[in-house]
Amino acid sequence: MTRRYAAFLFDMDGTLINSIPSAVRAWTAWAERHRVDVHELMRVMHGVKAIETIRRFAPPGVDPQREFELLLQAEIDDVADVVEIAGAAAFTAALPPERWAIVTSAPRSLAEVRLRAAGVTAPAVMVTADDVERGKPAPDCFLLAAERLGVDARECLVWEDAPAGIAAAEAAGADVMVISATHHEPLDTRWRQVGGYDALTAALEQDRLVLDGF
Predict the structure, then answer these.
(1) How far is Cα 169 from Cα 154, in angstroms, rounded to an integer?
(2) Model pLDDT for residues 87-125, shown as the tens digit of each residue
(3) How confident is the model at residue 54 (pLDDT cuts 50, 70, 90)?
């Protein structure tokens, strides 16, 4: 894995912040209300646009858009225990502002609330579920973030925690760093996995970000 990149592209939930307890509460309530298998839903919902998960699991006759809006508000209202992944705020704050972006499957309204709750400063470029028609595992979100930063996605390092996001990054041609802080066991992936950011440093050298701390 090369360690010289034009930019870093970060997923948010599970990568920069831990919002899993909040998400689990909201999705469990939704699943129980509609008599959906909670365990099956939880197995596939991470890293994917919420509206897509709702369309997949909602019973016939349910309005997916209305359910999405209710779920979104429930998650926005429940961020008291959302926290940063260890070292994430300091690590991103030290990066050149024009060299990193957040690329999340969450809507912008939820992303902004969760980042504030976790104490992570949002970057100038943030691609959310509102910005792309096709969510992860499609590469569109990472390609758009790279374009907005003025770089080639193939020269970026994507920071991810979920299979859908890893697949999207690979489809965009990027390298991947897997954040395993919220994992119960290592992912089955060829990419390097780290538990957090405390031991990592990045510096701009000859117009490229160089990652160190392994």
Answers:
(1) 9
(2) 999 999 999 999 999 999 999 999 999 999 999 999 999
(3) very high
User: Which residue in 13, 78, 140, 161 is the catalytic one?
Assistant: 13
Q: How many Å apart are CA 214 and CA 150, to the nearest integer?
A: 28
Which of the 8 DSSP states describes residue 13? B
Q: What is the pLDDT of residue 91?
A: 97
Strands in 193-194's sheet, in edge-to-edge order, are 125-127, 100-103, 7-10, 156-160, 175-179, 193-194
Closest CA relative to residue 176, chosen from 151, 158, 201, 196: 158
Q: Which two tokens stand for residue 200?
A: 């990592």
Name the strand (E) or helix (H) holding 113. Answer: helix 108-118
Instruction: Give one DSSP letter per residue of 42-81, joined into a string.
Output: HHHHTTS-HHHHHHHHPPTT--HHHHHHHHHHHHHT--TT
> What backbone phi and psi angles, to 5 degrees, belong to 121?
-75, 130
Phi-psi category of residue 61: left, alpha or beta, with phi > 0 → left and psi -120 to 50 → alpha:
left
147-166 per-residue burial string, b: 16 or more CB within 10 A, e: under 16 = eebebebebbbbbbbbbbbb
Model confidence at 186, pLDDT cuts 50, 70, 90, reads confident
Concerning whether 11 is annotated as a catalytic residue, the answer is yes
